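Write out this protein's structure.
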Amino acid sequence: MNWWNEFASRTRTDEPLGRKTWFHLGGRARYYFQPDGEEDLAAMTVRAKTEGVPLRVLGEGANILVSDDGFDGVVVRLDGPSFRSVKEKPDGIEVGAGVDLMPLARTCSARGWSGLECLAGIPATIGGAVRTNAGGRFGEIGDVVRSVRVMDQDGRIETWPRERLGFGYRRSAIGDRIVLSADLALVRDDPDRTRAKFEEVFEYKLQSQPMADKSAGCIFKNPQGGSAGAMIDRAGLKGVRSGGARVSERHANFIVADKGASASDVLNLIDVVRNRVRDAFDTELELEIHVWKPVGTGRGAA
């Protein structure tokens, strides 16, 4: 009997992943699991660890590049009702890991809850946003996180207070734990003001980033004291191609997947950009996106 038979009603095999990411690229997942709730998720997490099968959580897929060869493990999608709850409190909200960040930020801003309007235009689930401390020049989600409930690889659940979360630039201390929910500290404000701020940030993103194209957001983290996009631009890389992948002419830290592109095209172009920036500025750019590759193969997965 296959080990995953006990999860068969919530699991699909050989599941295409490309359309579930913003790049629209990549191969298939060996298993694609949509748990009924936290107990179901814990059971799968423990079983996958016992069987030696890697497990990853897929949110909005906005900062993910899946290898053309797919991912030989369990991909978890927290899209059930128990992971998409939003509970309003006097001083903020408790929100499930599967909730989409952009619609949540828009709704909160429209209702006069201040704190998320700075995240307009950032596609993510709450789980992914918290894990990577998503944000930009206007602010980060870590600024409003009070605590996070997480599950470890043994299915144990803990509530981590803010001081344990170790938020920094596009990082947290959560590691390979699964985010279940977050407690966000929001402040009541004038709805007209919060709504206007959300729209201002969103309009900035529309004007400065290739939001209509297939991309994964910023490809590289900004080096300390510098701008990855500015370095890539100054290295003359805007518009440079590898197969169907191209460095965006609108924002040099975005790689766009045009018709016919493959994940390999994007990976090759990442190497081209890294090498040119290293040669020009003696700076090693670090990936901001996460690359999912078959276990034990090739260029390191993030």
